[in-house]
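Saturday, quiet lab. Running sequence design on the structure tokens for the scaffold JK sent over.
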């Protein structure tokens, strides 16, 4: 990662001005065309509002916003409108945990029972085998999404954790993949024990402030206090319009209902507790591409993006499956092979919000998108971005190398 960063820096320094201008023109034209596509698709599904960002190297190439913070159109979405990131929060939790481990302030081989002694499983000794690194990579051996349903039932975290003594692991740690939210949140006691600081304060101190992510925060209370926030919407119904599209398919009208921001998944802050604007995510992408080594070191990024466990189910993802040849989970990030390029990626979904983020070390680009409605159109848009951008940005890198 560090070597790649130095090479790209040198290429940028010695790229002729005329060539750089051509590259910027290509990227600008790409964004112009892409923004039209995104606007059309968001309108097709009547999405109240959204925003996306594209970064290249150490630059924010584009930030585009669409629609309003709610269906009543009371306020326009802008670059600083705050959204819930849902499971994209895991990228931050994994980063701070791994950062502390590299500073020898905690050990990723520590059993989670060291920090959560009341965590037990139905099989004797099984809980003691689950280490912090297994939580980071979703390779704990637990059934997928264990007890997520209880977050909606107003259960406290202590009560939910005590319920795990009824669960028998489906495999040994590191032997199978099982996506978790509650188990992922067990990273928080380990993080806080190492620093004697709250998880939210530590993220502000070590990540948000150094990267100038001025609107990023953790928790429902901060979210509710902010004025420029997107409001969540869930699908109420789909209505046939009686019209057909160019492919002969029925055109439907989507009716969204505004709902309250609920505290359920905020209880699992490392898994789903981060709020941020699209401008914040652009800065997060630049840092993960390696351009803020004083905050995210090359060694840290390498550790986070090392494939840990294969995720075969991802190879069947709608819109992505024709282009994916491999899929793994690292520490807080998915690692995809998309049309011959690795993409470091994560998505998030919580009541009324969707978010997706990804970057390509090979192409030296990143993309993030957020919407305030539960629509899978975001998945379609992301796959379209990577399919189209892999051609445009690959030519940009090739031109720099040839020069």
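Result came back. Writing it out in full:
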């Amino acid at each position: 990662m560090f070597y790649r960063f130095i090479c790209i820096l040198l290429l940028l320094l010695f790229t002729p001005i005329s060539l750089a201008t051509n590259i910027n023109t290509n990227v600008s034209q790409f964004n112009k065309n892409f923004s039209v596509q995104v606007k059309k698709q968001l309108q097709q599904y009547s999405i109240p509002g959204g925003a996306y960002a594209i970064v290249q190297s150490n630059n924010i190439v584009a930030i585009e916003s669409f629609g309003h913070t709610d269906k009543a159109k009371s306020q326009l979405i802008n670059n600083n409108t705050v959204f819930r990131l849902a499971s994209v929060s895991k990228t931050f939790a994994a980063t701070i945990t791994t950062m502390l481990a590299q500073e020898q302030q905690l050990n990723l081989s520590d059993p989670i029972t060291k920090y959560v002694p009341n965590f037990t499983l139905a099989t004797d000794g099984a809980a003691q085998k689950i280490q912090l690194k297994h939580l980071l990579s979703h390779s704990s051996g637990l059934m997928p999404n264990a007890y997520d349903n209880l977050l909606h039932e107003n259960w406290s975290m202590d009560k939910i954790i005590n319920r795990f003594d009824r669960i028998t692991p489906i495999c040994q740690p590191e032997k199978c993949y099982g996506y978790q939210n509650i188990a992922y949140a067990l990273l928080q006691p380990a993080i806080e024990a190492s620093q004697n600081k709250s998880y939210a304060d530590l993220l502000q101190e070590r990540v948000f402030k150094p990267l100038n992510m001025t609107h990023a925060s953790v928790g429902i209370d901060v979210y509710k206090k902010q004025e420029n926030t997107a409001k969540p919407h869930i699908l109420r119904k789909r209505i046939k319009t009686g019209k057909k599209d160019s492919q002969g398919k029925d055109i439907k009208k989507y009716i969204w209902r505004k709902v309250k921001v609920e505290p359920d998944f905020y209880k699992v802050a490392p898994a789903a507790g981060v709020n941020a604007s699209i401008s914040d995510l652009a800065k997060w992408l630049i840092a993960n591409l390696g351009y803020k080594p004083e905050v995210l070191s090359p060694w840290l990024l390498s550790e986070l993006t090392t494939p840990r466990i294969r995720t075969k189910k991802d190879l069947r993802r709608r819109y992505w499956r024709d282009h994916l040849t491999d899929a793994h989970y690292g520490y807080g990030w998915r690692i995809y092979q998309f049309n011959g390029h690795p993409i470091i990626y994560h998505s998030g979904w919580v009541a009324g919000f969707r978010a997706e983020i990804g970057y390509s070390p090979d192409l030296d680009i990143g993309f993030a998108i957020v919407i305030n409605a539960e629509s899978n159109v975001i998945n379609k848009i992301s796959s379209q971005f990577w399919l189209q951008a892999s051609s445009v940005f690959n030519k940009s890198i090739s031109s720099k190398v040839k020069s």
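Notes for JK: The domain at 2-88+203-402 is CATH 3.40.710.10 (Beta-lactamase). The chain has 13 helices and 13 strands. Ask whether to fix the surface positions before the next round.
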